[in-house]
Structure to design on (153 residues):
């Protein structure tokens, strides 16, 4: 089966966009939010367009590295980074609401994923459908963890 061009979910957070932004834009904390990301190491000091990261991901006992580059950085609005290995773009969009913030996380693959990624997912991660189901669940969990942290603060 082919990759979904969009996997996305949203959550309402009872906290202002500035607080939510502080959490999602601190890429060094991505391992706290995402069940798939073990660690995201930022190369350089400040995060902005062009910032590069080295990431360690997991699925069960399996681990694999990736890299990413920030492609959109609009404070309190949008953060997006592209993973060259699989050509995916991960995005966090913040929208003010009457009670706080609507946070949306998405994984887009507008041009499909790379053959290397497709092979790795097929052979090492159980196939596209189960892997993408785990990504959708991971997005849901990430949003819930960010919500809990933002509402605790």
């Amino acid at each position: 089966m082919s990759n979904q061009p969009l996997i996305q979910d949203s959550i309402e957070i009872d906290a202002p966009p500035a607080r939510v932004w502080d959490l999602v834009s601190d890429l060094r904390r991505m391992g706290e939010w995402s069940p798939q990301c073990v660690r995201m190491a930022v190369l350089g000091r400040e995060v902005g367009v062009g910032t590069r990261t080295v990431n360690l991901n997991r699925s069960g006992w399996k681990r694999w590295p990736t890299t990413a580059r920030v492609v959109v950085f609009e404070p309190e609005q949008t953060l997006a980074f592209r993973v060259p290995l699989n050509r995916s773009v991960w995005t966090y969009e913040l929208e003010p609401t009457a009670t706080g913030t609507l946070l949306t996380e998405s994984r887009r693959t507008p041009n499909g994923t790379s053959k290397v990624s497709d092979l790795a997912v097929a052979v090492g991660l159980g196939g596209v459908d189960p892997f993408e189901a785990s990504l959708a669940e991971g997005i849901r969990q990430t949003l819930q963890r960010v919500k809990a942290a933002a509402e605790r603060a």
Notes: The chain has a mean pLDDT of 94.
